[in-house]
């Protein structure tokens, strides 16, 4: 199969969809791989490394999209990329369609088959292609939040770990999944006083067993969230209902109950955000203030550490990428219900129920779509 990997064009996005190692494996499986020149440079992979692994370098994204049957990316296709997608072409990348009606409309119009990393599942109910980036974003969240807490950046001027005789910062993490756990571990490692809120009792039991003492857990009800938010120096939004728009768990009215200069880091912004006042920002201009509360809402946080993120993402996508290329998308999805859960769009139809519900669009079941 002809596999193409264009350079990412989202602002300050330096990750790349395929590493030279991934190219090497795909070529060993008999596939042809086309990489846009410079695509890996931001992650420390120069064209030479791809050529040594067996890829051909093409000069433009147009050539990549025109040549490849399977396009492998990191971020959702931007408007100019969506225009280059065609019927029958397979797109394998993050999509986050629930909060993005324009992208959804364009993908449906293109006739392509789009498989979203973030809705591919595993046998234990996890999201194996979201997890590596959630690990990265979770670890980054207290780091960027503590920077935002600094006075010169608009924050309260509180040090995460305090000092002898001065209390540490209070951090509330809403959602104790992959992002939330990694955020809680780093925040507690920095010395903060951390509480994780979740609605899953089994998940909180696991967190307590595995990390007991390093942070506290509390059931995520509106009342508990309101109480904790009012005394927090930092809240990290890390909830997920797979495929769906994030629930709004802190309203604008609640900002007035918070301490001036407190910080909201909304990692769930790629699913629309879990704070009512969140709107997506970029690494170039990551923070803004509403009612005296600082917000950090970068939708591609792992792009800040592209070397780590590209390798971590490539490790996770590799088996799925090889299955898609070796068998073709229909057989690969028919053989693997977890990969089939990644199917969001096929031949002008939406195939993910959570996305359809969020956007009010009719859905064809993925099982039916692969027979079409
Ligand atoms: N901004 C960025 O760059 C990145 C964003 N993300 C996003 O971060 C979010 C979290 O991802 P993961 O941790 O991998 O998901 P996950 O599925 O591992 O964890 C989500 C957790 O939220 C909990 N939850 C659901 N509703 C809740 C509620 N009302 N209150 C409290 N907890 C609730 C679930 O029980 C689960 O434990 C997703 O939206 C994901 O797309 C992930 C990576 C990078
Ligand atoms: C998960 C995601 O959206 C990202 O890594 O950018
Ligand atoms: Mg994102």
TrEMBL record:
Residues 4-137 form the Alanine dehydrogenase/pyridine nucleotide transhydrogenase N-terminal domain. The active site is at residues 96, 270. One of its GO terms (biological process) is L-alanine catabolic process. Substrate binds at residues 15, 75. GO terms for cellular component: plasma membrane. InterPro entries: Ala_DH, Ala_DH/PNT_CS2, AlaDH/PNT_N, AlaDH/PNT_NAD(H)-bd, NAD(P)-bd_dom_sf. It catalyses: L-alanine + NAD(+) + H2O = pyruvate + NH4(+) + NADH + H(+). Keywords: NAD, Nucleotide-binding, Oxidoreductase. NAD(+) binds at residues 134, 198, 203, 220, 239-240, 267-270, 298-301. Its EC number is 1.4.1.1. Residues 149-297 form the Alanine dehydrogenase/pyridine nucleotide transhydrogenase NAD(H)-binding domain. Belongs to the AlaDH/PNT family. PANTHER family: ALANINE DEHYDROGENASE. This is Alanine dehydrogenase.
């Amino acid at each position: 199969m002809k596999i193409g990997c264009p350079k990412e064009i989202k602002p300050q996005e330096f990750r790349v969809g395929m590493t030279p190692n991934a190219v090497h494996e795909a070529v060993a499986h008999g596939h042809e791989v086309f990489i846009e020149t410079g695509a890996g440079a931001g992650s420390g992979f120069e064209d030479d490394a791809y050529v040594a692994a067996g890829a051909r370098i093409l000069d433009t994204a147009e050539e990549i999209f025109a040549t490849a049957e399977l396009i492998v990316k990191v971020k959702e296709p931007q408007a100019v990329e969506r225009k280059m997608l065609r019927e029958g072409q397979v797109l394998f990348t993050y999509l986050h369609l629930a909060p993005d009606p324009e992208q959804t409309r364009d993908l449906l119009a293109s006739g392509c088959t789009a498989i979203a990393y973030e809705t591919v599942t595993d046998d234990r109910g996890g999201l194996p292609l979201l997890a590596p980036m959630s690990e990265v974003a979770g670890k980054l969240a207290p780091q960027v939040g503590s920077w935002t807490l600094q006075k010169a950046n608009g924050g309260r001027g509180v040090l995460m770990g305090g000092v002898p005789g001065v209390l540490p910062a209070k951090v509330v993490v809403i959602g104790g999944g992959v992002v939330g756990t990694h955020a809680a571990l780093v925040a507690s490692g920095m010395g903060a006083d951390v509480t994780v809120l979740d609605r899953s009792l089994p998940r909180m039991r696991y967190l307590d067993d595995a990390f007991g003492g390093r942070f506290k857990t509390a059931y995520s009800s509106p009342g508990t969230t309101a109480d904790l938010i009012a005394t927090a120096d930092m809240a990290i939004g890390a909830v997920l209902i797979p495929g769906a728009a994030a629930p709004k768990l802190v309203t604008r009215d609640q900002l007035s109950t918070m301490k001036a200069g407190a910080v909201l880091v909304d990692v769930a912004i790629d699913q629309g955000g879990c704070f009512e006042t969140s709107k997506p920002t970029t690494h170039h201009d990551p923070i803004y203030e509403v009612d005296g509360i600082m917000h950090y809402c970068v939708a591609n946080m792992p792009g800040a550490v592209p070397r780590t993120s590209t390798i971590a993402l490539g490790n996770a996508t590799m088996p799925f990428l090889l299955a898609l290329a070796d068998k073709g998308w229909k057989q690969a999805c028919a053989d693997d219900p977890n990969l089939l859960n990644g199917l969001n769009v096929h031949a002008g139809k939406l195939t993910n129920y959570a996305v359809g519900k969020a956007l009010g669009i009719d859905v064809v079941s993925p099982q039916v779509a692969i027979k079409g």
